[in-house]
Write a structure and sequence with these properties.
The chain is built from 19 helices and eleven strands. The chain has 545 residues and is of the alpha+beta class. Strands 1, 2, 3, 4, 5, 6, 7, 8, 9, 10 and 11 form an eleven-stranded mixed sheet that branches. A hairpin with a 2-residue loop joins strand 7 and strand 8. 30% of the residues are buried.
Length: 545
């Protein structure tokens, strides 16, 4: 750095002075590091909470939707699947074929379960990969979830015999299968799965013909879960895929009577818009970041301002020796960098741990639950973003104190005092007014605050912003009212029906409740109002496979 006419490298001296000032103010350094740590903790905690909340909601939505995959082609034939699977828009595609939606084992009356074949990609997407054992290979091998095995009364042991009574195209079959693998039932799942082998569907191809458009029978239908290449709108990619392969759907204006019509939907887990497209959420995030920056700025600014005032005469002596304004700024900025190098890494670690610990509490304040699992990944962007925002906050905070130290002349530095010319009362009035109450502690405290009203206001504002941040986070984490949510979206407290209703077996006579039972329910003291639901066919979510 050349600061004199003939050039001179002063960088080593500036570094040495910065280190000596740093070592000479240990108490100041501790307070400044604590302030930087707290500011970094705020940023890291907020970013970790946001990332964990997004990842957990995404994960639980995927599990509720029946598996991963940005889009699904449902109730299609093998011919349609073969036409679509090779398109260049597709990154990965999962193949699933329904075997039977009606399992008549007594144990499955109150726990719905069905039989499918799924290829390796489909098992991965649906998270049905066996945690014990292996995937089915032989014709008589199956894998299943633990709750289904429990309902069937079959022990979760490799080699156990599983006898299944099931229907295909209206005909009943009974087969003894061998359990070759199983996995724990997902806590978010309300349905069981039994997975057969490729050999089974190949040997029963005559039974599993595609007849859904004719008789609405699910046996033989194919479901394709699709992951597209790169980013962009999933809806647009799905429409482009269908147009390129010669098919249509509802969003393209197709009708079920069209020969090339198929049921195609974007997964509910991928229907939410990005944060940048959600203006309210985006603005709230920006306001939160600015509030944290303002709070950190005020705290760190006050610390460095006090430090500069304490060392102002020392800076004046350096000016006398020929130190330039820019060099003094460099000295203070290097101290800030040293403090940041200590405080920011500590704040990143503490903030991430606090954020990860708070995600379950935040999830429990929403319609989701931490009991179903919380996803908090060690995302490098969390640490990079938090470190950048924290350092920018420190850099902005020390600019004015550094400017004050660099601008003051040596003479002003020697006689500098912190008294504010605009104190609560003028100097003349203070000099002539006689005390009537004597020396009072509260009067002395008030007078001390009046010495520098600007700094007093900044301290009060920083304390206020801290409380605002605390109250905001507390309100967000505990402000969800589940009763109001239920009241807004649901108009009933209970659904009473037979097991067939919840197993979507609407065609059976057992599905209907008797008039005697209905009258008995209406006579209960807790009964206020109710109605009846009549249906003639399955009304399940078309995205589920």
């Amino acid at each position: 750095m050349n600061d004199i006419l003939f050039g001179n490298n002063n960088r080593p001296i500036i570094k040495k002075l910065a280190r000596r000032y740093f070592k000479a103010s240990k108490s100041r350094n501790i307070i400044a590091i604590v302030a930087i740590v707290l500011t970094t903790v705020l940023f890291t905690t907020i970013f970790t909470l946001g990332s964990g909340l997004i990842d957990t909601v995404q994960d639980q939505n995927i599990r509720k939707a029946g598996g991963d995959g940005q889009a699904v082609l449902n109730y299609i034939s093998d011919e349609v699947f073969n036409d679509v699977k090779g398109n260049e828009l597709i990154d990965r595609v999962a193949y699933s074929k329904a075997v039977s939606y009606r399992l008549n084992n007594p144990g499955l009356a109150k726990w719905r379960s069905d039989m499918w074949y799924m290829d390796d990609t489909a098992l991965e997407f649906a998270r049905y990969e066996p945690t014990v054992g292996h995937r089915p290979e032989a014709e008589n091998e199956i894998i299943a979830d633990t709750k289904t095995l429990e309902a069937l009364g079959v022990p979760a042991e490799i080699g156990a015999t599983v006898t299944l009574d099931y229907e295909i195209k209206g005909k009943e079959y009974t087969t003894d299968f061998t359990l070759c693998g199983f996995w724990e039932t997902d806590s978010l799942s309300n349905i069981g799965r039994i997975i057969v082998s490729k050999a089974f569907i190949d040997n029963h191809a005559d039974l599993l013909t595609y007849t859904y458009p004719v008789d609405n029978d699910y046996s033989g239908v194919v479901t394709a879960y699709i992951m597209f290449r790169s980013g962009g709108s999933v809806e647009e990619k799905l429409q482009q895929l269908l147009m390129e392969t010669g098919y249509t759907c509802d969003t393209l204006g197709g009708q079920p009577t069209d020969e090339n019509y198929i049921i195609a939907r974007v997964s509910p887990a991928y229907q939410s818009s990005p944060v940048s497209e959600n203006s309210a959420l985006f603005i709230a995030g920006i306001v939160g970041i600015l509030a944290i920056m303002a709070t950190g700025y005020l705290i760190i600014y006050n610390i460095f301002q006090i430090s500069v005032i304490q060392d102002i005469q020392s800076y004046g002596q350096l000016k006398t020796l020929g130190t330039t304004r820019r060099q003094i700024k460099k000295i203070i900025n290097k101290q800030a960098i040293l403090l940041s190098a200590v405080g920011i890494p500590i704040g990143l670690i503490i903030g991430f741990l606090i954020g990860r610990a708070l995600v379950p509490a935040l999830m429990n304040g929403t319609t989701y639950t931490s009991e179903a699992g919380v996803v908090v990944t060690v995302n490098p962007l969390i640490f990079i973003g938090s470190a950048i925002f924290a350092f920018v906050t420190v850099y902005i905070s020390v600019r004015k104190p550094a400017k004050i130290a660099g601008a003051i002349s040596p003479i002003e530095a020697i006689r500098y005092t912190e008294n504010d010319a605009g104190a609560f009362q003028t100097k003349k009035r203070l000099a002539t007014k006689k005390s009537t109450g004597g020396a009072k502690i509260h009067r002395m405290a008030l007078a001390n605050l009046g010495r520098n009203r600007k700094r007093t206001v900044l301290v009060i504002v920083s304390m206020t912003l801290s409380l605002v941040l605390f109250n905001t986070v507390f309100t967000l984490s505990s402000g969800f009212d589940i009763d109001k949510y239920v009241e807004k979206f649901l108009n009933k407290d209970f659904i009473i029906s037979s097991a067939d209703y919840f197993n979507y077996n609407f065609a059976r006579s057992e599905t209907y409740l008797s008039e005697t039972f209905i009258d008995a329910v209406q006579q209960q003291n807790a009964y206020e109002d109710g109605g009846r639901l009549y249906s003639s066919q399955v009304a399940e979510d078309i995205f589920f496979c």
